[in-house]
From TrEMBL:
This is Lipopolysaccharide export system permease protein LptF. It holds the Pfam family LptF_LptG. The keyword Metal-binding does not apply. GO terms for cellular component: ATP-binding cassette (ABC) transporter complex. PANTHER family: LIPOPOLYSACCHARIDE EXPORT SYSTEM PERMEASE PROTEIN LPTF, SLR0882 PROTEIN-RELATED. It is a multi-pass membrane protein. It is found in: Cell inner membrane. The lineage of its organism: Bacteria, Pseudomonadati, Pseudomonadota, Betaproteobacteria, Nitrosomonadales. The chain crosses the membrane at residues 28-49, 69-94, 115-142, 286-305, 312-329, 341-363. Its main location: membrane. It comes from the Bacteria. It comes from Ferriphaselus amnicola.
Length: 376
């Protein structure tokens, strides 16, 4: 057969189609970026409040708040990207229905399925980023956060004490208060130490001090130019002694075996050690990009707006479907971890069911007769 050159009308349609897809994807980006910014702000704010609470209680140093906040935000990014992409497609196409742009689209002979291509053009790069974050960066962030917490727990009592706050020792027999810490000069100013050892209460106060390590490895808090009060005031055995130098032994902290959190393991480690809970975590990481892609396509039929039913009904339905989908992923992952469900079935059954739901939603919007008429 002889190939005929493309006509000018066909070229014009191709150019217009390309321009339309680029404009639509640009609108997806314009809608998704503010949504993503708002979601990230909410997550960062909630995590910041939690970390500041831990900092006030003394379990987290002030300089570690931003570090833990960064790791926590990086862990939540795959889920936030998935939600933002779903809402971006849903809100954009809902606006097209409200502004009667869909009427023009359908009147020109183009069907609902032809929205899939521009939606996939927008969604696939985001899905690839979600997969990269889920499989690589989120586990790395969690492992770094766990390692940072272990380093904090391994600190001694003096190193864990924060300036201007009372700090109880891990043995619960001493209370420290350091008013000022000069890291460069390695000096501590205005020190207060209360101890209860062998049934004897004592209080020591000094103008300054420093930490010292003995030849055998023992560490001491050396107090300079201070006063020691021992006993109960008003009784005959109460003593007050002024000293020029007094060394308080810092109890060593026992090193705890690190808890192996499957969420903090690398994806390669999960594959090399295929236990039930490791496979469950692996399915969660693989399920995030898969569910994000399915939800992006599902947003096309869900964006339909019925003026008689209200403009927010489709948004409520979409949010309910997303919550159900996300919760069912968590449930199936728990079943795989408990051995109630095989790993292949846990990964495939739910996503296949959601694909079937997508096909049914498309059919409902494209069918000439509604299901009610067919039931009659």
């Amino acid at each position: 057969m002889q190939d005929y050159p493309q006509t000018s009308l066909q070229k014009s349609k191709t150019v217009r189609g390309g321009l339309f897809q680029r404009e639509l994807q640009r609108e997806f980006m314009a809608t998704g970026a503010p949504v993503f910014a708002v979601l990230v702000s909410l997550v960062v704010l909630s995590q910041l409040i939690r970390l500041l609470t831990e900092s006030v209680s003394g379990s987290l140093p002030v300089d570690g708040v931003l570090v833990m906040l960064g790791f926590s935000a990086l862990n939540y990014l795959p889920v936030l990207l998935s939600v933002s992409m779903f809402l971006a497609v849903l809100l954009t196409l809902t606006r097209c229905y409200r502004d009667s742009e869909m009427v023009t689209w359908f009147s020109s002979g183009l069907g609902l399925t032809q929205w899939i291509r521009p939606v996939l053009g927008f969604a696939l790069p985001v899905v690839a980023l979600i997969g990269l974050m889920s499989l690589v960066f989120s586990p790395w962030a969690l492992s770094q956060a766990d390692e940072y917490k272990r380093r904090l727990d391994s600190r001694d009592d003096v190193a864990a004490a924060q300036p201007g706050m009372f700090r109880e020792s891990k043995q619960a027999d001493r209370v420290y208060f350091l008013e000022d810490v000069d890291v460069h000069k390695k000096r501590i100013g205005n020190i207060f130490v209360q101890s209860n050892q062998n049934g004897i209460n004592s209080v020591m106060m000094a103008k300054e001090g420093y930490q010292e390590t003995a030849s055998n490895g023992d560490r001491f808090l050396v107090l300079l130019n201070g006063t020691r009060y021992e006993g109960v005031p008003g009784q005959s055995d109460f003593r007050m002694v002024e000293f020029a130098r007094y060394a308080v032994r810092i109890e060593a902290v026992e090193t705890k075996l690190p808890f192996v959190n499957p969420k903090a393991l690398s994806t390669l480690a999960l594959v090399e050690q295929p236990t039930s809970w490791h496979l469950s975590e692996l399915e969660w990481r693989l399920g995030l990009p898969i569910s994000a892609l399915i939800l992006a396509v599902m947003a096309i039929p869900l964006s339909f707006v019925n003026p008689r039913a209200g403009r927010s009904l489709n948004l409520i339905m979409a949010i309910m479907i997303y919550m159900l989908y996300n919760n069912m992923i968590s449930v199936t992952n728990a079943w795989v971890g408990q051995g109630k469900l095989g790993p292949i079935a846990g990964l495939s059954l739910l996503h296949l069911a959601m694909l079937l739901l997508v096909a049914m939603l498309f059919y409902r919007r494209m069918a000439v007769f509604s299901w009610r008429r067919l039931a009659r």
